[in-house]
């Protein structure tokens, strides 16, 4: 459906939400490795993610120090490398490589979303997933991961039921209606008492 198409594309989702006054994080859409590096400053943390994937695939907490980049993986900072790669069809993709204890891993991005890190939860990397049907929030869970920025349960996050603030409930319903869906999971990020929509599934 058209709402699924919007929800699957994080760029479309954020543009539409922003146009309708729904709070989302500022971001940079990077087409090349150089643009990724230019979007990072040495004084802040960021989250990078693909524009067209879910379940935490390709999502990393990242920082830059002296023109080197580091990813927070499994509870520690690991050096990473961002390069461009030209495909046979002439298209250029961004490749992120990093080494784990056992292997050299990589993620390929058609486009890279670079967002400011937005979280101050003392428990760890946290997000709120609320399920919305029509104009009703039927459930909400807080997901926390202590070792990776993706709080998805599939990535090691732990979830527990929470009660939303009335403003958050209204925000979740508005986000659902903005993309024209009847049913969705709306993800919130919370920092300094402010709530932003991360994405809609």
Indicate the radius of gyration in whole angstroms: 17 Å
N-end to C-end Cα span: 13 Å
State the total count of DSSP E strands.
13
Poorly predicted spans: none
Describe the sheet with the most strands: 8 strands, antiparallel
Question: How would you sum up this structure, described in words?
Answer:
- The chain is α+β, with helices and mostly antiparallel strands.
- It has helices at 2-8, 10-19, 33-38, 166-179; strands spanning 28-30, 46-50, 60-65, 68-73, 76-86, 92-99, 104-109, 112-116, 125-133, 136-145, 158-161, 183-191, 194-200.
- The strands form two sheets. Strands 1-8-2-3-4-5-6-7 form an eight-stranded antiparallel sheet.
- The chain is globular and about 45 Å long.
- The two termini are 13 Å apart.
Quick structural overview:
With 201 residues, the chain is an alpha+beta fold. It is built from four helices and 13 strands. It is globular.
What is this structure's SSE topology?
Layout: H1 2-8, H2 10-19, E1 28-30, H3 33-38, E2 46-50, E3 60-65, E4 68-73, E5 76-86, E6 92-99, E7 104-109, E8 112-116, E9 125-133, E10 136-145, E11 158-161, H4 166-179, E12 183-191, E13 194-200
Antiparallel strand pairs: 1-8, 2-3, 2-8, 3-4, 4-5, 5-6, 6-7, 9-10, 9-12, 10-11, 12-13
């Amino acid at each position: 459906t058209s709402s699924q198409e919007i929800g699957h594309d994080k760029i479309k989702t954020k543009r539409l939400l922003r146009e309708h006054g729904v709070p989302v994080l500022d971001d940079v859409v990077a087409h090349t490795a150089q643009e990724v590096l230019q979007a990072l400053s040495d004084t802040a943390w960021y989250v990078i993610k693909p524009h067209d994937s879910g379940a935490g695939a390709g999502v990393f907490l990242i920082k830059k120090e002296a023109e080197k980049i580091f990813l927070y993986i499994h509870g520690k900072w690991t050096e990473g490398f961002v390069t461009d790669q030209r495909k046979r069809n002439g298209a250029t993709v961004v490749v992120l490589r990093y080494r784990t204890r056992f292997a050299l891993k990589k993620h390929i991005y058609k486009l890279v979303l670079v967002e400011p890190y937005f979280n101050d939860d003392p428990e760890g990397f946290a997000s709120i997933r609320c399920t919305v049907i029509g104009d009703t929030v039927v459930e909400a869970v807080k997901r926390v991961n202590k070792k990776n920025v993706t709080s998805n349960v599939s990535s090691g996050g732990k979830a527990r039921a929470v009660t939303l603030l009335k403003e958050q409930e209204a925000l979740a319903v508005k986000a659902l209606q903005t993309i024209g869906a009847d049913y969705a999971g709306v993800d919130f990020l919370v920092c300094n008492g402010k709530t932003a929509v991360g994405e809609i599934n």
